[in-house]
Amino acid sequence: MALEAYRQKRNFRITPEPAGRLAKKKAGRLSFVVQKHAASHLHYDFRLELGGVLLSWSVPKGPTLTVNERRLAVRTEDHPLDYASFEGTIPKGEYGGGSVIVWDRGTWTPLEDPERGLKKGRLSFELDGEKLHGRFHLVRMAPRDKRENWLLFKGDDEEASKANGKALVDARPESVLSGRTIEEIGDAKQSSPRKMQSAKKKKSIAGTDERPSGVLDAVKALP
Ligand code: MN
User: Fold this and answer.
1) Ligand 1 centroid to residue 7 C-alpha, Å
2) Which residues have C-beta under 5 Å from ligand 1, the single-atom ion?
3) Backbone conformation region of residue 180, classed left if phi is above 0, alpha if psi is from -120 to 50, else beta
4) Angstrom distance (rounded) from CA 74 to CA 11
5) Within 10 Å of residue 92's Cβ, how many Cβ atoms?
6) How far is it, in rounded angstroms, from Cα 150 to Cα 48?
7) What is the pLDDT of residues 160-171, one digit of tens each?
8) Ligand 1 centroid distance, CA of 128 (Å)
């Protein structure tokens, strides 16, 4: 998949999402992003940078740190790299209409050849995000319909949580870019879209200092 499927689904004169372009392969660490998306069904879009695009999966329940919980992850179209900083509201009636926040962001390290893993249907990797850390696996299930269904789950390591505490998606609902919740993004859009945009800009610049350098490089490399 390149970005044709991504572009075909969207009208960039209406949606604020980036039209994007294929990025050149760059040296350095690969980025990942998890976006919380209040579309017709709330879900988390889990995206891994590979080959100049963001490989994407839609995870209805979101990622978990609990080792024995496997989360359905439906493969979706590749997204452009600059989608990783998209936060805002896609207008109603457009593809994926609803609000989006950047729920987590950082770098990922494949533990095996990721191109081969993608073909085989098994990706093992480490995440170094602001919320997600440690080893994770994505495994493709036997094909049943047109959808490519995978399972996302936590590897057993020091970062795994075995406690029955509050799930991470509930304990940390906020955006790592703006600190806002998805409800706040949605409300701001309705009352004063301009105000929200300028506040978002300021916050995301202020927050840049605290992000890992790999992400900072990725941010600088954006068009
Ligand atoms: Mn989505």
Assistant:
1) 14
2) 37, 45
3) beta
4) 23
5) 7
6) 14
7) 876 556 899 999
8) 22
